[in-house]
């Protein structure tokens, strides 16, 4: 007979087994539910994506009017992210188009028999930078040579920027109850010294150049005399471009326009009409009735509008795409940092690899580098500069400056054969600085935290957030600042065929408007991407036998997409907290996070809404 043994499970073991199965089943259920929810989310995203981006291409109907309303933002650089226009936080689509697409579309409309005119009504929710605004206006000016009409209407021209663009029209109309905010330009600067004093944080500032004012908000409570001089010069230069353009378009003396801005005498609708800023006061339906007359259609017939974005979608690829000769556009957009590029960040490694790729590609006959950067890390800028030098030795390199090509942005532009910029580009700012923060007293006095350090050498913890610099450390860091500044000036002198002394005289960190930069030798001519491409083709000696291609930022698939979702939601929350101060927050955050010697320009005009 065999022995029958009964296994007795201890109560504690039984409890453990039950807990295990309970946890396992809960985890399994959570996994299943998560996958179901994730699948549902992606189905929803796919449906929205297809609805927004996958619809059939629009058609241009006969007797159409191209409508420019900024319902879609106009940006510098194309995105390789297929969902770049999708806001995961709000589950909405926010389209954008590049300035190259926009000006190509307007140029195509000038010769398109189906397009009879342009209607400018800036009531959309998109934005555009100042330099792109200038290039868009110039292209509309060229469009008028076709003999087709350009009409502008607004219930309110809310800023000099919007009126500047609209003033290019043959006829400018304003709502009878509307206004024109014709009052000049302002560039406010926010100072943080009082805040730092209150919380006990001491900034450690090292800089070369009395105009290098990026550090001033942390050590002063108002502009230095040098900073005020360059700020007022900048604002007046930008304002001068606007006033001269409006004066020419509206046939109004410059002195009169300046006086209207000073005494605010052209803001009200009746005053704007009397002083010639608008042609008539009308409601939108009355303006459309006038356009029906131009189009020779019945009063009850709808006008066939096509938006700028929809018209872009109708255009065929570049007609010269069969040519083997390529003019390659490479984009240098964002704050310059070491490593790879990211959102609003221009990575030195990424850009250097793109420049090298163009250099080694025999089909690329010339390169246009579109720079839209306020600068950043001086070391990262040096990495890019070296690759620009190598490229220039083999083929023509033309720089097209956008809104900003200042400090580190100018550093990487200096080697180019030709530099073109818009009149309202911010450039120059040839200077460097270092910025550290000593929060030791703040930690001790405000929250009771102290820091003690074990170190092998006296300066092993140099730059630590809990202490300041010693005199010897400060002197050593200043030597580094001076060396970087000397290198910067030498690069500019070599690239621009100037002497060290002449570059130093216009350097010292001073920021210049594009309209002034030509007179001091920092740029060669005024113009945008179109002009830069034509110069590149001429330098490459390819005649008309070339095609334009754009090198977009690399996109790394699903991981990048997930990071995009996370960053969008986080950014949306931060925007909600900071409101109109969000852009200032992002700038300060980048300034603090970047370590080492920096070459960055602090000034920027808000995008035109």
Tell me what the structure shows.
- This protein is an alpha/beta fold.
- The protein has 21 helices and 24 strands.
- The strands form seven sheets. Strands 12, 15, 17, 18, 19, 21, 22 and 23 form an eight-stranded mixed sheet that branches. The chain has a six-stranded parallel sheet with strand order 10-8-7-6-1-11. A two-stranded parallel sheet has the order 2-5.
- Helix 2 (99-110) packs across helix 11 and helix 3 (130-143) packs parallel to helix 4.
- It is globular, with a radius of gyration of 29 Å.
- The N and C termini lie far apart (94 Å).
- The model is unreliable at 47-54 and 557-562 (pLDDT under 50).
Question: Which descriptors apply to this entry?
Answer:
609 residues; alpha/beta; eight-stranded mixed sheet; 21 helices
List the helices and strands and how they pair.
Blueprint: H1 11-53, E1 64-68, E2 73-75, E3 86-87, E4 92-93, E5 96-98, H2 99-110, E6 115-120, H3 130-143, E7 149-154, H4 160-166, E8 171-174, H5 193-199, E9 202-208, H6 216-219, H7 225-250, H8 254-263, H9 269-274, E10 280-281, H10 284-295, E11 304-307, H11 308-314, E12 326-333, E13 335-337, E14 345-347, H12 348-360, E15 364-373, E16 375-377, H13 378-392, E17 397-406, H14 408-411, E18 418-421, E19 426-428, E20 432-438, H15 440-447, H16 471-496, H17 500-506, E21 511-513, H18 514-517, E22 525-526, H19 529-540, E23 547-551, H20 557-578, H21 582-593, E24 598-600
Parallel strand pairs: 1-6, 1-11, 2-5, 6-7, 7-8, 8-10, 12-15, 12-23, 13-14, 15-17, 17-18, 17-19, 18-22
Antiparallel strand pairs: 3-4, 9-20, 16-24, 19-21
